[in-house]
Amino acid sequence: MSDTPNPLAAPVSADLPDWRSQPRAFLQALFRVAVHSAQPLHTLAPHLPAPPPGRTVVIGAGKAGGAMAQAVEALWPADAPLSGLVVTRYGHVPPRPAGLAQRIEVVEAAHPVPDAAGLQAAERILQSVQGLGPDDLVLCLISGGGSALLTLPAEGLSLADKQRINRQLLESGAGIAEMNCVRKHLSRIKGGRLAAACAPARVVTLTISDVPGDDPSVIASGPTVADPGTCEEALRILQRYGIEVPDSVRQQLQSGALETPKPGDARLAGHAVHMIATPQQSLQAAARAAQACGIDAHILSDEMEGESREVGRVHAALARAVALRGQPFARPCVILSGGETTVTVRARAEGAPRGRGGRAGEFCLGLAQGLQGVADVWGLAADTDGIDGVEDNAGAFVAPDTLARAAAAQRALADHLDRNDAYGYFEALGDLVVTGPTHTNVNDFRALLIL
């Protein structure tokens, strides 16, 4: 979509690096294939509705928001009215292709902890859909990250409250569905409320999934999708993870005053949701690319959840079984998986440096620990948006000599795990995967190569 595209968004050659002699380059190429298959310009066209008799207003939020907006601008008829506002993460607006007129405003805000820019964008988006009629169309572009980017606190909550709650949720080990259940009920725009505000206009939501199970009500906390969750569930999650909210908000949750629009709500009738890219589709694209290179590929699941380090250890046990016993898969092979793991941030001693890293890096720490240097096994884990947590890397590599090189560099893996410092560990080894923003997001990508 750009005359200076991100290399991961560029077409991938049919001739991938040789997996026998260049295992690291081969794994990186599979990651490129997965990301390329989820680019909005490649996936959006079949789901784009026809222009309506009235206005078309484009709204949206997410890490892929800028690329999705450009795809709509490129595909929408030049003579059909089009306007709108989309919010994406800082640094995630792709370069604009020469000759492509901008008709959709794209603004930037903070992720994963919301900021004032995201609050202002949410207010403007909500205002932009006021007063629409039945002949108008609202085209909503949703991708992962939208929960933080589209923040509009419920009555009784300040932005500072939302920031604290969001930060505590991120560090608690809560799953994405749990986090988003809370976010929906503490918002004036999420959990179907934005769609209700668009009535009586028709709403078509185009979504890139970054959640296990591809549930559109979970992606970006489902601003245009009816919410089956309840205030009672949100309260239980807050209690489970020891997260405090102001008394007035707790009372509203207890009374049901903060309940979201439910399935069957008349204000959402006739709306449509189209999934334009999913984790499974990206894993399948990577598997096909591997098979075309003459090596078997196996997809474990696109819905893996749990503590990142533990998921890494489970993958290590599987890889060891293949490498040492030829079970359950024959070697050589590639093993692929996706989903969204979590990191529970450990308490640290007073004055100790805060660890750096995200889910993919912590998975790789667990993987390296579990593999224990077994020969002929390489691994890559990366976030498909190009950013692992809040650092500048997408993920990391693991090789048969990872532990040996770390020992030579006086890096103790257990110490880095204790501090949730995957970034520092793999940076010292030169094993970070750095891509920059990819302008899409189908969540975690993991690949193991067993020769």
From TrEMBL:
SUPFAM superfamilies linked: GckA/TtuD-like
MOFRL domain ranges (all copies): 333-444
Domain MOFRL-associated residue range list: 27-254
Top EC class of this enzyme: transferase
GO molecular function, one term: glycerate 2-kinase activity
One Pfam family recorded for the sequence: MOFRL
Record keyword Ribosomal protein present: no
Identification of the protein by name: Glycerate 2-kinase
Key words of the record: Transferase
Organism of provenance: Paracidovorax wautersii
Source taxon at top rank: Bacteria
InterPro entries for the chain: GK-like_C_sf, GK_N_sf, MOFRL, MOFRL_assoc_dom, MOFRL_protein
Documented EC number(s): 2.7.1.165
